[in-house]
Input
Amino acid sequence: MYQDFAALVYHIREELMSLITLYDTTLRDGTQAEDISFLVEDKIRIAHRLDELGIHYIEGGWPGSNPKDVSFFKDIKKEKLTQAKIAAFGSTRRAKVTPDKDSNIITLIKAEPDAITIFGKSWDFQVHEALRISLEENLELIFDSLEYLKKHVSEVFYDAEHFFDGYKANPEYAIKTLQAAENASVDCIILCDTNGGTMPYEIVEIIKSVQKHVKTPLGIHAHNDGECAVANSMIAVAQGIVHVQGTINGFGERCGNANLCSIIPGLKVKMKKECITDDQMRHLRDVSRYVYELANISPNKHQAYVGNSAFAHKGGVHVSAIQRHPETYEHMRPELVGNCTRVLISDLSGRSNILAKAEEFNINLDSKDPVTLEILDNIKDMENRGYQFEGAEASFELLMKKALGSHIKYFTVLGFRVIDEKRGEDQRPVAEATIMVKVGGKIEHTAAEGNGPVNALDNAIRKALEKFYPKLKEVKLLDYKVRVLPAGQGTASSTRVLIESGDKHSRWGTVGVSDNIIDASYQALIDSIDYKLHKAEE
Output
């Protein structure tokens, strides 16, 4: 009996040791990267995709630091997430101010997140130079802040900022800062390589030392300044770390954060650690590209696991080998992360992606159906012309419906004209759009003004169609992004327009591509309205 019980305890312990908690900070730390900014609506959409991916904690931002983060925490409460918990980020209390009087601490609690993460100083150099207080007073800041938060929030995490640099400079004091957090009964203590310069062998030695003095579960938060963020995160897990922080695509300040798109498959496939399900991991590439698209940044084709070139083969010897046995030149099956093998001289990829997307939209396709091949060929042709459907799910669904013959043509645009006129040197341009549409046997010819040519065209389209389809009054244009495609033709280059629309029930993205920015915008606008009408009939 004892042996059976002991075996059960050992099994449970092994299961717990293999379970890794994923904490995503794309919406906070990721937005500190150069050239990256998300609207509140973008952050909400990304949060949903992270939730579907199986991320356990989503750090939404620092409430009170800016209006955008305040709005996010207010709006996210209206959304229904499947499993992810929303975390708010902040700092320890200010010196000489009690937690109950500290505006940062109070704002964190008022945001009503599922969890709160605060950072504090672990490096004596930072305490002296940044906070300008005594080492003992810093320990009080850490303990007081965490103890107070623990009384108001069910889960509290402590980010030990600059911990590895602090340990190398003064190991005894760095450990004391962790023990101050432990004495406040925090749920997890995260060791941060804030400057990103720690080497993997140092990570191993320091974590082993920490584990001798701290019993609270430990996490890792690595930056990539030494190109070791992923390696440092993985080796930390090998040492018993159970909580890993990072961002999608490694977005982050300076050289970026640890890349969850590499960490997740590394944990599951290489280390056999449980973090998300196999089915969820098959969406990893889609999520990666979705975040790139909403950030209005071209995806890194050479990115490990999820990049276009991650499993691409060009050399003749390689191609011959992988056609017989993919393992000869592939370290894992690309389908596990939603990617695919590509043979560059004769592209064989794509069909599985189409079938997976069709299943997501509840559209029945057969891999041998000629329609599937038609959709695949059409998409390849469109992508060659600059289309991308990440972030434009509505346009993709309409494309499949047209190929299947299930698309309903609710209206026809007979023509439109857009005028953008500047009437005086000091006056703003005035935009006006005229459009003619046909619905059934009726023709509607109307015009509208707008704040710019695209807005004028959008207003004219709606004005013409709303009398036939009143539900279109619910639709709002939430975001508009333009990317000039790299064609080397200057102002004659093609442009890709990504539009986000929404109503009181949902949001959707559409795309248009043309060497004329108005035409590209028109395509995306028409798809948006078309999609709404189709959804209204379902």
